[in-house]
Design a protein that fits this description.
243 residues, mainly alpha, 2 domains, 2 strands
Length: 243
């Protein structure tokens, strides 16, 4: 890749744009192939019980990558007009994953299938949108709440991956805390969500432990928590929520 360093800025950018266009075209071609494999049930001839198993074990996709491509290939089969949007880049695998999840949720609540015509309307509504806008459009049009179940995973270094769904009010309150903490806690730059949660947790523990034993909460290292900062954040947010 040393050749790239020799390129002028406009040459580098031009090449990158060409590659992105080819990548979109290649994705579309791959999806068409997966669609045809699905139609022919070729995976059964290769002794795989499902298209998913075929993509994971025969082609080496991860489980999530395989599922996104299966959803996209089946969408192309049902809604051929989606093909053009995929090639032009206004519809991608993330869009289709959100669409698939929303449609399944709606069909589950209705007890009936969403029509192809309705899916065309949904595709037109989310084309070119970012993730937040896509979720908002789908939830409003289909009148559903796209909630992901809470998930907690212990990682190799014993840190915890936590995934939760917040209401709009909850998110806005945390954003207020984050804005305040970026000035009051760090004084320079943006505080991470993990740091913010630690500050708020310390404040909560200090308040309740001190009520019971008049002893400040201490962390694993035996250091006093930064409760003064946390209390300022908490009070500010409480005042905001009363307005």
């Amino acid at each position: 890749m040393n050749e790239l360093k020799k390129l002028k800025d406009h040459e580098l950018e031009s090449q990158l744009k060409n590659l992105v266009a080819k990548e979109r075209k290649l994705l579309h071609v791959i999806l068409e192939h997966i669609k045809e494999v699905d139609v022919r049930k070729l995976y059964l001839e290769r002794a795989y019980s499902s298209l998913f198993e075929y993509l994971v074990k025969e082609l080496g996709y991860s489980g999530s990558a395989a599922m996104r491509r299966i959803n996209a290939a089946r969408l192309l089969r049902e809604v051929p007009s989606a093909s053009e949007k995929i090639q032009e880049g206004s519809l991608n695998l993330s869009h289709i994953a959100e669409l698939s999840k929303a449609v399944k949720e709606k069909e589950k609540s209705l007890g009936e299938k969403i029509s192809s015509a309705q899916k065309v309307e949904l595709i037109d509504a989310i084309a070119g949108k970012n993730s937040y806008e896509t979720q908002k459009e789908l939830s409003q049009i289909l009148d559903i709440e796209l909630k992901i179940p809470e998930r907690q995973l212990v990682q190799k270094d014993e840190s915890i991956f936590l995934e939760v769904t917040l209401s709009k009010d909850q998110h806005e309150k945390l954003l207020q805390c984050k804005d305040l903490a970026s000035h009051l806690v760090l004084q320079n730059g943006e505080v991470s969500w993990a740091s913010l949660f630690e500050v708020l947790a310390d404040q909560y523990l200090n308040r309740h432990v001190s009520q019971r034993s008049n002893v400040k909460y201490e962390n694993k290292d035996g250091k006093k928590s930064k409760s003064t900062t946390a209390e300022v954040v908490s009070v500010c947010v409480s005042n905001e929520s009363r307005k």
